[in-house]
Design goal:
The structure is a homodimer. Chain A is α+β, with helices and mostly antiparallel strands. The first copy, chain A, contains 13 helices and 10 strands. Chains A and B meet through helix 9 and helix 13 of A and helix 9 and helix 13 of B.
Chain lengths: ~350, ~350
């Protein structure tokens, strides 16, 4: 089956609770099929066996409530893979081992199951705004449906067995993508990251592990998966995120109250650059789109652009641009085309 | 008589030959009344005598072809004086000795006669574009008209006597205001200034002697006034300006041909900042308005803003802004109000 790269991901277009700060919420479950080595140690035959078993499970009775398409990563080109990463539908790791990997994907891309990433199965539910509990409800149901015909590796005392020790137990990773321009401008962001890290949560950049926090976008997720109930993990993250959201909103109020002209100047200048520049790097676009998103969320930039901010963010990433022009595109051409896309997107505000 | 500060100067609104490079042409004649000490050495009585004589001459028969209003500088407030300087109608020097000074001003402000500046009379004709010969024609006629009832200090061998030795002889200063963004971007501007200086011309900034060349605006004028016919002085300046105009146009063509994206990026980003910033200093406005003027003159920024560039330049100077709000305006308020004026001026492009 081919992948329609222009397909719209739910998290990019729908709204959700507190989505002026919380861009998206995600639950990921790591599962492995019993009696088959983890992907790291698996032979080609083992991996093919996993693919066959999961493909079979895709069609079991319980899975009929989750209609998905099956994409073999070996059939996708580099640009399509890049785009799936930029849309947060698959991980960069899965794209790297694309030969024996696949992904099951729901129509709105809110549900996905990566096959033969670090674990045999990585299920993901990705929703707009702060919806950790709803994401968990869907992930739980998806897990049940797959488990109705798959035999997951499970240890009575440890729980689900996973490739990486940090995932053993519940195999759950709950995360949120936060947009924190207020805390960044008030220079409080490092204090917040430090506090969050001290209570056992992890803070990462836009594209997960090892990436920088570009455009004031931060991923916050749980670290521990062993010896805790899933609900407790999610409650804990939800409570911390609630507090970060409050801090962010306080910082925004202070900026609006204390330095309204300086704030308007910064955010509108970023709009001016996005709407008029003819050359723009990915880095600058991400930074200025953060300002624009901030301006829209506080009602300063009104009317907002018709194109959703998440779409502008994704469409200015290198993968999306290459999809339009193929691999031939030089970085300079990319910067020129990115600026053109942004001008067009902001012209009909 | 009061001064209507919102009156429009001809050079700011009319078009003229080569006005994509030559903003304006100016002829200034220095004259002194015989047997009265130069202003530098004159008593209050002497200056009052000069004012009376010139006021009388304003109404002589020959002057009927040049209808002018009479403004006593002592009756203008600091803000009105500042604005007259920014419109290039009077010199900063005249404003400094405002107690015994006056200016005669034609309806379109293209003709002016400063009284009791460095010399008793300084006549000025200021026209848009490259019109040195036309400006000289008018200045000559104005000089004749005033001389029909005034006795100018004249020496058979030296010519007209003036306060400063550099003006003795013809008493003429011919100058043009040039906008040279192409030469500036191609880093050729210093070579041009050096060449021009070596052949006996003077290069100055936007507001004459001792001011910086802000916004790529340069005043080029003759240095010598003694032992040359006025026509020769003007021909010489005209020829040199012609060459500078050609060099500037060549630089512009090269920029458009060699680095079109970089040029469009720079000029449109300046437009974006002017159209959207909420705080803007006078320095930044002048620089960015130079980019905007450049973009309009090469047809890149199309349609151009409805407000003429010269008006935008003048209305963002401190004097104009203070006129709107009085002396109370702090520099920060000025920067906020300047940005507001520019946003409004560029919104209805």
């Amino acid at each position: 089956m081919t992948y329609d790269a222009l397909k719209k991901s739910l998290w990019m277009y729908a709204s959700g609770p507190d989505d002026d700060v919380v861009v998206s919420s995600r639950i990921r479950l790591a599962r492995n099929i019993a009696h088959i080595p983890f992907p790291e140690a698996a032979s080609d035959e083992h991996m093919a066996q996993v693919l066959a078993l999961v493909a079979q499970a895709q069609n079991n009775d319980a899975m009929q409530q989750f209609p998905t398409q099956w994409l073999s990563l070996s059939e996708l080109d580099a640009v399509q893979l890049h785009l799936l990463i930029e849309k947060h539908v698959i991980s960069p790791q899965l794209a790297q081992c694309s030969e024996h990997s696949a992904v099951m994907l729901s129509e709105d891309e809110s549900l996905s199951v990566m096959v033969n990433e670090e674990d045999h199965l990585r299920m993901q539910v990705l929703l707009p705004g702060l919806q950790l509990h709803e994401a968990w409800r869907q992930a739980y149901a998806l897990d049940e449906a797959l488990e109705s015909t798959l035999d997951f590796a499970f240890h009575d005392q440890l729980g689900y067995l996973t490739s990486c020790l940090t995932n053993v137990g519940t195999g759950i990773r709950a995360s949120v993508m936060l947009h924190l321009p207020g805390l960044a401008l008030k220079k409080r962001i490092h204090d917040v990251i430090e506090s969050v890290t001290q209570i056992g949560l992890v803070v990462r950049g836009l594209y997960g592990e090892g990436t920088d926090a570009k455009g004031n976008l931060y991923q916050v997720s749980n670290q521990m998966t062993l010896g805790k109930r899933e609900e407790d993990i999610i409650d804990h993250l939800q409570n911390v995120v609630r507090q970060i959201v409050d801090h962010e909103k306080l910082s925004r109020s202070q900026l609006i109250h204390d330095t309204p002209a300086a704030l308007a100047d910064r955010l509108w200048r970023s709009f001016g650059a996005l709407a008029h520049a003819h050359i723009m790097t990915s880095k600058e676009a991400t930074e200025k789109l953060s300002d624009l998103r901030f301006g829209i969320d506080i009602g300063l930039i009104d009317p907002p652009p018709k194109r959703p901010m998440n779409e502008l963010l994704v469409m200015t990433q290198p993968g999306f641009l290459q999809m339009q022009f193929g691999d031939e595109m030089s970085p300079m051409h990319r910067d020129v085309y990115r600026a053109k896309l942004l001008r067009e997107a902001l012209a009909d505000r």
